[in-house]
Amino acid sequence: MTMKINFDERAHRYTTEEGKQMVSVTQLIGKYFKPFDKECISKMLAAKRRVSQQSILDDWKGSADYGTEIHRMIEEVLLGLPEHMHKFNEVARAMQFIKPYVEAGYSIKPELKIGSRRWLIAGTIDVVIESEEGVWLVDWKTGKPITSTNDYGQRGYEPIEHIHDCKLAKYSLQLALYKKIYEEEYGKKVLGTYIVKLNPEGGFESIPATDYSKEVEAIVHRRLIEVHKG
């Protein structure tokens, strides 16, 4: 039986039905990379661009809010509210990506919350596309290009110290962890994981996530030790 997950959207906190706190997929993967120093980097960018630090922070918040709104509208269109289809180009691009799967008769599940009792990990998958043979997991992305390297040579922490600290690696690790949880909790094979970059000027880019199955095995092993320690 699939576990019930409670989600406090305001606090962005997942808990089990019994009230046990769960770590989010994003938080867990984030532990293995150097934290983003918002204060330091915003000051540096402000000085470089000769603007106020607050303007940089406002731009970042605006981009994050915009991405959240796109996700919400995609979910509502998939749940039967087509009037949102053309409010943003990115929403139409998402439907363009989904269309072949709908025409093939596959089930589309947006914003699906999943979790693991064993590891006390939870998260929300942007879209799960389900067929009789298995599922595909999709992660929508808006905004800046998806980097595949780190210009400063920064990498993750052990046991993923060989992985570049970049967007493609982080998104791929998150999807690999979702795959691990989905196959264990739902008992269905994950046929593929995709990062879909929605371009406001038109079109989309479907990027197969890098296979980090071995790395995720090491991460969940460490997580299990943490859970047992309490």
How many domains? The number is: 1
The helix count comes to 6
Largest sheet: 8 strands, mixed
Strand segment count: 8
Mean pLDDT metric: 93
Low-confidence stretches: none
Shape: globular
Question: What does this entry look like structurally?
Answer:
With 230 residues, this protein is of the alpha+beta class. It has one domain: Lambda Exonuclease, Chain A. Helix content is 42%, strand content 23%. Strands 1, 2, 3, 4, 5, 6, 7 and 8 form an eight-stranded mixed sheet that branches. Strand 2 (13-16) and strand 3 (21-24) form a beta hairpin. Helix 2 crosses helix 3. It is globular, with a radius of gyration of 18 Å. It starts with a strand and ends with a helix. The mean pLDDT is 93.
